[in-house]
Amino acid sequence: MSPAHFQQQLFAWFDLHGRRDLPWQQDINPYRVWVSEIMLQQTQVASVIGYFQRFMDRFPTIRHLADAELDDVLQHWAGLGYYARARNLHKTARLVAANGGEFPQTVEALSALPGIGRSTAGAILSIAGGQSQPILDGNVKRVLTRFHAIHGWPGETRVAAQLWQLAETYTPKHRTGDYTQAMMDLGATLCTRAKPLCEICPVQAGCEAKHRGLVRQLPAAKPRKALPVKQCYMLLLTARDGAILLEKRPPTGIWGGLWSLPEFPDRPSAEIWCRERGYRLAAVATLAQRRHTFSHYHLDYTPLLASLAEVAAIADPATFAWQAPEAWAALGLPTPIKQLLAQMPESDGAVISPGPRLL
Fold first, then answer.
1. Do 160 and 17 belong to one domain?
2. Residues 272, 316 within the same domain
3. What is the DSSP letter of 350?
4. Which of 59, 101, 285, 339 has the maximum number of C-beta atoms within 10 A of its C-beta?
5. What is the residue range of 98's domain?
6. To the nearest whole number, what is the mean pLDDT of the chain?
7. Are 205 and 234 members of one domain?
């Protein structure tokens, strides 16, 4: 099937069945396309819709985002994961705002901004700018890998280079924004990872994977390796009014810039840390260990529920703060920490938050 025929079949299908009701498809501009593309990285559309709408309500333009504090941005991102995306959004917003508020108009200049790669740059320029620029997100990789029966993991350098060449070949000079959306729709709704609907695919006639019976095998999975396991203890230090001592994480790394719980290698280390800061503990309880899996390791963490015997001042006010239960919802909290706090037991006879009791 020639590129022209591929495009023709794809457009005919998209004109009848393409998605047009997603929130980022309304009032299209580079800012909205950029935010949606970053949110959609490694995240399903269904999960992104609500986040995108709330994000746009709070930061309707790139200048609103640039003027906001990082804490506010992270709070509106909390739960989406991969928090470096939010930090890079904030950095890029400030860079673009400082340069007049207009996004660069070349792939090279866009790709030089924090968190924007070649595919995201292509999506911004094609969807919002009408430029003929290829993209290669996960959906497009899957479509092209199957259509040409390409073996090997798409993340491998050799395979990725081949896929980029194909993406350039198939990208038309006209209706590029529609083509970009059509390819993403095809991968998301028909050429899915599991249970692809080959029988109604508009380009099935030229699909090598279908003809060779390789649809289920392609694309090849990323070579597996055992994830390492890291362990820590997390301190749930409670004041008499139910406030919890929270720590502002460093701006980089896992959960960078978010509020979390102080971490320690073991229980004695946590107790020594409290004594050194003048926190006299009335009680300490070790709770059941939990696991949170990141992309590159498992974190096994054991909560330590401790209560203060008396009121104590913050020893490190630049990094730590007492946060009352009514303030938790407005903080940028990692999902595991948010879930842990939601299950806190009663304090002074009042239920802090519904959920199963920890003790």
1. yes
2. yes
3. B
4. 59
5. 3-212
6. 92
7. no
Instruction: Please state the domain count of the chain.
Output: 2
Q: Are residues 193 and 243 in the same domain?
A: no
Residue 298: give its domain's CATH number: 3.90.79.10
pLDDT at 354 over 80: no
pLDDT tens digits along 61-103 = 999 999 999 999 999 999 898 999 999 999 999 999 999 999 9
Long-range contacts of 226-229 (CB under 8 A, 24+ apart): 227/293, 227/296, 227/297, 227/298, 228/296, 228/297, 228/298, 229/297, 229/298, 229/299, 229/300
End-to-end CA distance of the chain, in Å? 64
- Partners of residue 206 on adjacent β-strands: none
Residue carrying structure tokens 């390819």: 183
Q: What is the CATH number of the domain that holds 31?
A: 1.10.340.30
Residue of 268, 267, 271 lying closest to 301 (CA atoms): 267
- How many whole angstroms separate alpha carbon 9 and alpha carbon 69? 47
Same domain, 208 and 238: no
Is 168 among the residues known to form the active site?
no
pLDDT tens figures, 266-277: 999 999 999 999
Q: pLDDT of 196-239, one tens digit each?
A: 999 999 999 999 999 999 999 999 999 988 999 999 999 999 99
* Stated pTM of the model: 0.81
Looking at residue 310, what is its pLDDT?
A: 83
**What is the spatial distance between Cα 358 and Cα 348, in angstroms, rounded to a whole number?**
16
Do residue 155 and residue 277 come from a single domain? no
Nearest-angstrom CA–CA distance, 358 and 238: 14
Contact 202, 18 (CB under 8 A): no
Same domain, 177 and 279: no
